[in-house]
Design a protein that fits this description.
The chain has 236 residues and is mostly helical. It has one domain. The protein has eight helices and no strands.
């Protein structure tokens, strides 16, 4: 019961510290906002560890999932640290990209265990992934988003995170859309993608002063991370 209580406390604490972070980070990031953001990140890590200890789910899935969350925490530090914008975008983006690779490995390991006879990355999955990325490219031109020197890294990142989303869907479907998996993995992955999509608008679309968009970006991100960490309880 102690793990359940700590988990609940960590999740509820996010409702206190996320608004604190948003307030401190507006109109621009600072050391105070960095402090609050790292508290929020530590809380989603704590909630995931509680899920691991509670479920005793010491599998490859859990190891990869926790690794992804760790790189998310590192990305939070790098992308919010008050230094040159290009530097933090590069380092933070790389860390989040690595985190998504670990999420893909987590989902893939579970898929392979459930249906070892089926291929994870078949032509249908690849086509769907490329179609989603193509939609993102169209939106880029419609919204006149200019990535400049970051065009290629952003494209690579978009492919990685879209692969994470499609792999999450595969795992959810192969577990017969179990409610726990649907609510944690699938919803968590969707929220993460939505959060990253808004980053493109905030950093490269000239909407850095759009506060509602910033709030949406942060809320979807932390909720997505908490849900992904909670999936450790449901995928064994």
């Amino acid at each position: 019961m102690i793990y359940v209580a700590v988990y609940a406390l960590a999740v509820l604490s996010e409702f206190y510290f996320v608004p604190k972070f948003l307030k401190a980070a507006w109109p621009k990031r600072c050391m105070k906002s960095l402090k609050y953001k790292m508290i929020c990140s530590a809380l989603f890590m704590l909630s995931a560890v509680c899920c691991l200890l509670y479920s005793r789910n010491y599998t490859a899935f859990s190891i990869f999932m926790l690794s992804g969350l760790v790189f998310g925490l590192i990305g939070d530090l790098l992308i919010h640290y008050p230094v040159d914008k290009n530097t933090i975008a590069t380092l933070g983006g790389a860390s989040f990209g690595i985190g998504h690779v670990f999420y893909i490995l987590a989902f893939s390991s579970a898929i392979k265990r459930i249906t070892p006879e089926e291929k994870i990355f078949n032509y249908k999955v690849i086509i769907v992934t490329l179609c989603i990325v193509a939609v993102g490219v169209v939106i880029k031109f419609v919204k006149k988003i200019k990535f400049g020197a970051f065009a290629f890294p952003v494209l690579v990142y978009a492919i990685v995170i879209t692969t994470m989303l499609t792999t999450a869907y595969q795992l959810t479907s192969r577990m017969n859309f179990n409610a726990g998996v649907l609510f944690t993995i699938m919803l968590g992955a969707v929220l993460f993608v939505l959060s990253d999509a808004t980053i493109a608008l905030l950093m490269f679309g000239g909407m850095e002063r759009n506060r509602p968009l910033k709030v949406f970006n942060i809320v979807t991100y932390f909720l997505g991370q908490i849900l992904l960490g909670t999936s450790i309880v449901f995928v064994k």
